[in-house]
Design goal:
9-stranded mixed beta sheet, alpha+beta, Rossmann fold, 568 residues, BirA Bifunctional Protein, domain 2, single chain, 15 helices, YbaK protein, 5-stranded mixed beta sheet, 31 strands
């Protein structure tokens, strides 16, 4: 490809509305352009990377026996009504109506569609297992699209679905898919970790995410260096802090705390660690009043809390509802004397002796409160967020480490969630009708472009891993008015192409400086620099972007040196 004949626009300045490095560099390198919030066009440079990612993903899916299909983007609303996901997806689901008023959705994922295919075609255990996959655009109406293609409203995803007659068969495919994801990420040149996760609107209690480690990533994960336990922040559990500052459980005492609403304010007032405080968070579940009790130094894990009470639609009480229930403003609720309320206490509170809680009256807190003596919890469950440094629940010896990253893949054991709801059944070997056991496996293809950049960039620009670079080599002549330079340029360009390399020829009539900066910005791993001084001796420079080094080699050795580099 010749730069002068291509659409490869680059920016010197960092775009003001781009918050993270991958978004900034994809815009500056001319990889993407925004059409509207959360919707992007992939320009030629970006599409070349996207295509290479798709190729690797497709090769690994085919390698484990998955079969490629293409399903519709436009989904009839009745399918989502069968599974109840019109409600579960809520405002994330793009909905529209046709001219007859029939409801449709733009596919956020394809569980319903693929289950509809299976229930029409798969009738016997002899036809199982089956795994179907596609690489297709998806739509989700994100409340706050941001970070470029990292969290977009339209994106490219690989989604696969498997159908089984037994849990053992599902496990075999689940493990094969996890292995394929690890190979994909290894081929991409990415450092990633597999972690336990929550399922969200997809469903399935057993599921894992694949997180590409990156400082700017939205995902928070906890890992144990001793035993290898790993989970995202929504799923992670722990045995609590290695040291716990305990409040005495002596006689209860109500203390005036005027104007002290927050944990920080109250712990500062009492001159104690926030660990001694216990927050009372009030929720409504239908008409039921529920209190969640969590240590003062932790946040409530709303996903675990919803599971504990069996209501994903539970909502925080309004300030007016809090006042009506406790006779106190927000910030002073406590479990003692809280009548008609279902109390759910975090499991970590079992290790507490006493605690400081709100007194259910304005400007007052109560010290020395003991669970089981001064109030009774209807439930004890793990409902608080893990904190870095917590003791590992898997081995008890390790201390959990926090990392950030980008979720790039997510695999689920769906069991019979969709097949049962949609009446998708088969006849087993005994002639009994059973619902398909299913798995679901997603991989963010367009997100992988950004995730790769988040791990591979420097102050000059992108540093593409060899497998994903839009070009293997960029040829940069410094003086296009010199006939010898032009002749050598054309010869090297042709020879590299014949050898099977993707080559970009920077034949723009620009000074060397802007050419070098653009080459470093777009991140091609090898640059062949043709300058008159070296050419007089039949030589040229090879600059290796990833290693930041330069070699001077004979013109006749360029193809061999590039071939050697990519063979490593």
């Amino acid at each position: 490809m010749r730069w002068s004949k291509s659409y490869l626009p680059t920016y010197k300045e960092v775009p003001k509305d781009a918050e993270i490095p991958s978004h900034q560099l994809m815009l500056r390198a001319g990889m993407i352009r925004s059409l509207t919030s959360g919707v992007y066009s992939f320009l030629p440079l970006g599409y070349r990377v996207l295509h290479k990612i798709e190729t690797i993903v497709r090769e690994e899916m085919n390698r484990i026996g998955s079969q490629e299909v293409q399903m519709p983007v436009l989904h009839p609303g009745e399918l989502y009504e069968e599974t109840g996901r019109l409600k579960n997806f809520g405002e994330l689901l793009f909905q529209l109506k046709d001219r007859r008023g029939r409801l449709f959705a733009l596919g956020p994922t394809h569980e319903e569609v693929v289950t509809d295919i299976a229930r029409a075609e798969l009738k016997s255990y002899r036809q199982l297992p089956q795994t179907l996959y596609q690489i297709l655009v998806k739509f989700r109406d994100e409340f706050r699209p941001r970070f470029g293609v990292m969290r977009a409203r339209e994106f490219m995803m690989k989604d696969a679905y498997s159908f089984h007659a037994s849990q053992e068969s599902l496990q075999e495919t689940y493990d094969s898919m996890a292995g394929a994801y690890h190979r994909i990420l290894e081929r991409f040149g990415l450092e990633a970790v597999q972690v336990e996760a929550e399922s969200g609107a997809i469903g399935g209690d057993i599921n894992h995410e694949f997180i590409v480690l990156a400082n700017a990533g939205e995902s928070v994960i906890f890992r144990c260096p001793s035993c290898g336990y790993a989970a995202n922040d929504e799923r992670a559990v722990s045995l609590g802090a290695s040291t716990l500052e305990k409040e005495s459980s002596g006689k209860m005492e109500t203390v005036a705390t005027p104007g002290q609403h927050t944990v920080e304010e109250v712990s500062g007032f009492f001159k104690v660690s926030p660990q001694r405080l216990v927050k009372t968070l009030l929720y409504k579940s239908g008409e039921k009043n529920i209190a969640a009790l969590v240590p003062g130094d932790r946040e409530l894990n709303e996903i675990k809390f919803a599971k504990a009470i069996g209501d994903p639609d539970a909502r925080p009480m309004t300030p007016e509802e809090v006042t009506a229930l406790t006779q106190a403003p927000v910030g002073f609720a406590g479990p003692v004397g809280l009548d008609g309320v279902h109390i759910v206490a975090d499991e970590l509170l079992n290790d507490y002796d006493g605690m400081i809680v709100g007194a259910n009256q304005a400007d007052a807190h109560t010290r020395g409160v003991k669970m089981g003596r001064d109030f009774t919890a209807a439930q004890v469950a793990r409902i608080s967020m893990v904190v870095e440094g917590d003791r590992c629940t898997n081995c008890d010896t390790g201390r959990l480490k926090l990392s950030r990253g980008v979720e790039i893949g997510h695999i689920f054991k769906l069991d019979v969630k969709y097949s049962k709801a949609m009446g998708a059944t088969f006849l087993d070997k005994d002639g009994q009708e059973k619902a398909f056991i299913m798995g679901c496996y997603g991989f963010g293809v367009s997100r992988a472009v950004a995730a790769t950049i988040e791990q591979h960039y420097d102050e000059k620009g992108i540093r593409w891993p060899k497998a994903l670079s839009p070009f293997h080599v960029i040829v940069t002549p410094l003086n296009l008015s010199d006939a010898g330079t032009v002749s050598t340029m054309e010869s090297i360009y042709t020879d590299l192409g014949v050898a099977g390399f993707d080559v970009l020829l920077d034949d723009r009539d620009l000074r060397p400086g802007p050419k070098f900066k653009d080459a470093e910005l777009i991140g091609v791993p090898v640059r062949v620099t043709l300058g008159e001084r070296n050419l007089k001796d039949g030589r040229c420079e090879l600059y290796y972007r990833l290693e930041d080094r330069t070699d001077v080699v004979a013109i006749t050795d360029v193809v061999a040196k590039v071939r050697e580099y990519y063979a490593l």
